[in-house]
Design goal:
This protein is α+β, with helices and mostly antiparallel strands. It is 32% helix and 24% strand. It has helices at 23-36, 41-54, 57-67, 74-81, 83-87, 118-121, 175-185, 189-198, 260-273, 279-286, and strands at 3-7, 94-98, 106-111, 124-130, 133-140, 149-152, 156-161, 205-211, 217-222, 227-230, 236-239, 296-303, 308-312. The chain has an 8-stranded mixed β-sheet, with helices on one face. Helix 2 (41-54) crosses helix 4 (74-81), helix 3 (57-67) crosses helix 4 (74-81) and helix 7 (175-185) packs antiparallel against helix 8. The protein is globular.
Length: 313
């Protein structure tokens, strides 16, 4: 597991200079994203307006910096960072937490279709530090500015799962940028949940947030403008790719739901059989043949209390 430190004391335009060592990876990833997004013309048509309205100056500067270490423009890089909002139907994902254990761990499979497993090959842990202190960490890729999975040491961890509702997408902040904002700025679990619940976002999602203390475990079921907070049942919290409580906005027979219930039920069955006692046990559940998908590119376990990350690709 390669780890890269990003210094938040540096200006946004300076903190990505390490990418000069990863130009080939950045170019390969961006080319892959843009090929998949070739049919998402709305982003190309309105990208300048969207950038002006919903992308912070700090992120604009980071994106500009990334463009200096690859062969793609700032707008192309921003479009690829909107990948989730444009093509979330290619995602799966399963995450769970056992809530009655002394040491709470947050386990997650990231399922994302990719050619040649480049998303698995190029996965890294990015440690964001300020004044020499670790603030938060992301499991991500070179050139991707937002966040799909991350942990704030001593506070909480967050993972994003895809879902589809009957509510149309909105012009609003992309969820991957909001997740990173929360990891960087939220003081604790309650503030993180409030921001992730109440902020209008561009598209549907399911968010699992796991804190350090008892009862700090929720799934936020989101549409762009609505939310419901789902809490653990029988000492476990599981999320795949379907709404379990926000059912009025649920689509039926969408591609994400084809395996969602089966994966959810299988994780529940395994947890009911025996509570995991170590990271090895958590990975066994994530790797179960009825849980792991052919498109699984990352398997990870977060410890919100210590900030520790275990990653398999």
């Amino acid at each position: 597991m390669e780890r890269i430190t990003i210094n938040l004391n540096l200006t946004p335009s300076e903190r990505w200079s390490f990418l000069k060592e990863y130009k080939e990876e950045v170019n390969s990833l961006l080319k892959y994203y843009l090929t998949d997004l070739s049919g998402a013309g709305i982003f190309e048509t309105y990208i300048d307006t969207y950038k002006a309205l919903f992308i912070s100056e700090s992120y604009k500067q980071e994106i500009k910096a990334v463009s200096e270490y690859c062969d793609f423009s700032e707008n192309e890089i921003l479009i690829t960072n909107l990948y989730y909002d444009a093509l979330k139907f290619v995602f799966g994902c399963t995450a769970f937490c056992v809530t009655n254990l002394e040491q709470k761990l947050h386990a997650r499979n990231l399922d994302w279709w990719t050619e040649n497993n480049i998303l698995g090959q190029y996965s890294k842990v990015f440690d964001f530090e300020k004044n020499g202190e670790l603030i938060y960490s992301l499991v991500s890729w070179p050139g991707f500015v937002g966040a799909l999975s991350g942990v704030k040491k001593g506070a909480f961890s967050i993972t994003l799962n895809a879902v589809l509702s009957n509510e149309p997408p909105q012009f609003a902040i992309p969820i991957t940028f909001l997740i990173r904002d929360v990891l960087e700025n939220a003081s604790g679990f309650d503030e993180a949940v409030k921001i992730l619940s109440e902020t209008p976002i561009a598209s549907d999602c399911l968010l699992m947030i796991v804190g350090c203390n008892k009862n700090e475990n929720v799934v936020i079921e989101r549409t762009p403008t609505k939310y419901i907070i789902r809490k653990p049942i029988d000492d476990s919290l599981i999320v795949t790719n379907e709404y379990l409580t926000l059912t009025e906005n649920k689509l039926t027979k969408d591609t994400l739901q084809l395996t969602a219930s089966g994966r959810h039920n299988r994780v529940k069955e395994l947890l009911d059989g025996k509570a995991p006692e170590s990271e090895i046990d958590y990975f066994k559940i994530l790797s179960d043949k009825k849980v792991k998908m052919e498109i699984t590119v990352q398997q990870m376990i977060f410890n919100p209390k210590t900030g520790e990350i275990h990653l398999k690709t």
